[in-house]
Amino acid sequence: MLKYHVLLFLRNMRRQKLFSAINLLGLTAGIVSTLLIYLYVQHELSYDRFHANADRIYRINQTFIWGENDDHLFSSTGPGVAYALDAEIPEVEQVTRLHPTGNFLVSYTDAKHEAHAFDEGKILAADSNFFSVFSFPLVKGNAATALTLARSVVLTEETARRYFGNEDALGKLLEVKDTSPNGDGSIQTYQVTAVVKDIPSNSYIDFDMLVSMNSFEAITKSSWSWIWTTFETFVLLDKHATPEALTAKLPILPRKYAETTLRRIMNQSFDEYTRNGRKWELFAQPFTSIRLYSDDIYNRLNTVGSVVILYVLSGVEIFIVLLSCINFMNLSTAQYTRRIKESSLRKILGSDRAQLAVHFFTEALLFCALAAGVGLAVTQLVLPLFNVLTGNALHLNLFMDAEILMVLGALILIMSALSGSYPAIFLSRFSPVEAMKGTLRTGKQGKMLRNGLVMFQFAISMVLIVCTVVVFQQLSFLANKDVGFNRENLVVVKRGEWIKDRKTFGHALEGIQHVEDVAWATSVPPRLYDGDQFQAEGHTDKTSSLNYVKADEQYVPTLKLQMVVGRNFSNEIPADKERVILNENAVQAFGWNVDESVLGKKIFYPGMEKTYEVVGVVKDFHYWALAAPVQPMGIFHMEGSVFSNQQQFAVVRVEAGQADAWRNVLASLEKEWHVFAGDAPFQYEFVDQAFAEAFKGQEQFARALTIFAAMAILIACFGLLGMIIYTLEQRTKEIGIRKVVGASVWSIWVLVVREYTGLILVSVVVSTPLCIYLLSKWLETFEYKVPLTPWAFVLAAGSMLATSIIITGYHVLKAALMNPVAVLKDE
After folding, report:
1. Whole-angstrom distance, CA of residue 402 vs CA of residue 424
2. How many domains does the chain have?
3. Looking at the structure, do residues 615 and 689 belong to the same domain, yes or no?
4. pLDDT tens digits, one per residue of 312-347
5. Where is the signal peptide (predicted)?
């Protein structure tokens, strides 16, 4: 019996090459899209689930204490939080911390006295019990002792090969120059105590090197601090404990333990700190939820995704499958005239309705199975390109991943059932006598159903087109939004702390052709590393969070910051080294007016018991990515006493309109770098690209959405093509009669095209509210967003109408130009 169905299937494919090809393309497009989306979603959902105790690990987040009127949480806590958790919450089995140390210059001299030096940026300091909480398998070494001793370092396999090749890394010594934030530039010797397998791509925690936490004396001495917020703190709950028990006990900790920090740094109690509505709270977040549920959290260790993107792509996947199945149904009914007579002969020869239904279901199953085979091959071919566009490392391996086979099998069955249902029911219930006479009609209900399917297809296409347009519109808005300074043509030379003679190096850079300005700073937008609590002089009852940068006199003109009040630092005034320039937000946070009256006022820094006079106010600018609102910010002099990290950056502005000169400028920058920094690696980045990096995940989502929107539109067009062919088969004689009685080709074209244009317009009206709802929810995740304007909907509707007119126009004109004698000769 199966052989019989296969032979019929092959015969029909050979006889109806056009319909078969379109059917196969439509189903293949649906399967390829589904597989790509499945791989993407599966990868996102798998984040951090490879840890043996993943379901018992929680990250401790806290209120964002470094901003005003900002409801985000902060993944970073002070070093003292871990001690409080361990002392107060018995349900916690283990507490461990991770601290991004910044960059180290790491070198190794081999037996041939050849040096191998690298600027390592992916380094984390970890507590000794790190491997007791997280399941990063060791290739060599002892997990229990690898991070116990000071100056211990754990390498990934790839990092070990980079330094030692195929030699055994265990016990080797690395020289580490501490150029990290808060480092002193000293050189220490670290011993390799373990080698860990390379970090999988679905891990929030990512590193090339782990160093023992007790290697840093400053961390050990700061166990009381809750304000050095550069640590991510994780807890492993006892097997019998519940998350609710942990959450219930967290509120008591800040009041009890942060008090020490507040009195020591800010000279105030916890009650005084919270008196003006400020909060300091702790929250427990499941470790496995960090990747997808951290939209409202400032994360320190890694970038995150969004569950909204998964919902959108999963919805797109479902709709694409439905569109593919609808396309198959429409094309099957388009062959109605031929297939109805074929089925009539089978009924006359003894086939019952059930046998005919099985035949059509089997045909759909064979089509889907063939499409699945082609779809697998196409997916393997396009997956590398898809990975490039989305920034992933997805792979398809049927033999290693049984879930893929199960998904593919389920997809074939579901698509077969959906695709074959309507043809099986519709083409098996007719009267064979009427069919053979040619008097059988499809009826009004059948037409309504088919029109409804076409409207559904184009409604989904409308949603996808509008969403794609608005997503790119939003990303373009963020890319071009005024950030308060000129971010174009700015290149940042990193690791300036390796330059001993900073001023001479700066003068050398200024001498490069097309270089306009050069400034020095400890931070450059969109990254700002320093911040603390300050007070308006004479108001010890209130502190304000102030993020700040140390910079020289050229910083303001190089970034082209706008001075609102006062002046910039001056080389001619030595006292400026202990003065400060504030932004408008900071002036308001201290309770002052943004006018001349602020000049000469002073802010007090309790941490150093120093006072700084305000000499100027700059217009608010974004020194963090656009995902965050502008916060109070200050610019202190590069040579001033305020505490800061040890990193230094040379900010170079290149003349506008010199795109062709960039290569020469960069080559000259590197040449001067090696003159002053020797063999140290030359590193740089562009400020505008750094801002764009913050929305990299959204850009990848936009590219993926574009791909799948194009797939859906293609399938919808196949469905429309099927409906047009079906309609023309049914109305061939009507068209012939109209021509005989004098109808023009144009009037016949308008008659048929008008019907489908109306269907598309109805699709536009029906889908518009859904578009508005979905896009409004997505835009809520942005601090700054574009308004929803009609032109995106007009563009989507216009493109669909134009596409439908082109598709229908050709076939209608072809039918209208036929000789009416040929179609009416049997009448």
Report:
1. 32
2. 4
3. yes
4. 888 888 888 888 877 777 666 655 555 566 666 555
5. none
- Give the list of residues 6+ apart from residue 48 with CB closer than 8 angstroms, or none: 54, 202, 203, 204, 205, 287, 288, 290, 291
Classify residue 188 by burial, with Cβ atoms within 10 Å: 0-12, 13-18, 19+.
middle
Q: What is the DSSP letter of 149?
A: S
Q: Residue 246, exposed/middle/buried by CB under 10 A (0-12, 13-18, 19+)? A: buried
At 489-528, the pLDDT tens digits run 899 988 877 787 888 888 888 888 888 899 999 888 888 8
Does pTM top 0.85 for this prediction?
Answer: no
Residue 704 and residue 755 share a domain: yes
* Residue among 49, 205, 214 nearest 122 (CA): 205
Residues with Cβ < 8 Å from 762, sequence gap 6 or more?
A: 455
Residue 633 lies in a domain: yes
Average pLDDT, the chain: 82
Residues 6+ apart with CB under 8 A from 140: 168, 169, 170, 194, 195
The helix (run of H) or strand (run of E) holding residue 533 is strand 530-536
Burial (Cβ within 10 Å: 0-12, 13-18, ≥19) of residue 541: exposed
Which of 637, 658, 693 corresponds to the end of one domain?
693
> pLDDT (tens digit, 9 = 90+) per residue, 731-766?
666 777 776 667 777 777 777 777 777 878 888 888
Pair (515, 659) in one structural domain? yes
Whether the ω angle into residue 526 lies within 30 degrees of 0, i.e. cis, is yes
Same domain, 345 and 384: yes
Among the candidates 693, 722, 741, a domain finishes at 693
Alpha-carbon Rg of the chain, whole angstroms?
34
444 and 552 belong to one structural domain = no
Residue 35 domain-assigned (yes or no): yes
**272 inside domain:** yes
pLDDT at 621 over 80: yes
Each residue's pLDDT tens digit, 142-195: 999 999 999 999 999 999 999 998 889 999 999 887 554 444 556 789 999 999
Residue 61 included in any domain:
yes
CA 316 – CA 711 distance, rounded (Å): 10
**What is the C-alpha separation between 150 and 157, in angstroms, rounded?**
22
Asked if residue 713 and residue 612 are part of one domain, the reply reads: no
pLDDT at 619 over 90: yes
Q: CA nearest 304: which of 312, 313, 317, 294?
A: 294
- Residues 88 and 108 occupy one common structural domain: no
Expressed as residue numbers, the domain containing 741 is 2-43+306-478+695-824
Core vs surface per residue 500-512: b (16+ CB within 10 A) or e: eebeebbebbeeb
How many whole angstroms separate alpha carbon 602 and alpha carbon 537?
6
**pLDDT tens-digit map of 260-302:** 888 877 777 888 788 767 888 999 999 999 999 988 888 888 8
Rounded Cα distance, 631 and 547, in Å: 8
592: left (phi over 0), alpha (psi -120 to 50) or beta: beta
Dihedral in degrees, nearest 10, Cα atoms 424, 428, 430, 432: 150
For residues 223 and 91, state if they share a domain. Answer: yes
Return the structure tokens found at 161: 């090969």
Q: Indicate if the pLDDT at residue 2 is higher than 60.
A: no
Predicted pLDDT of residue 449: 67
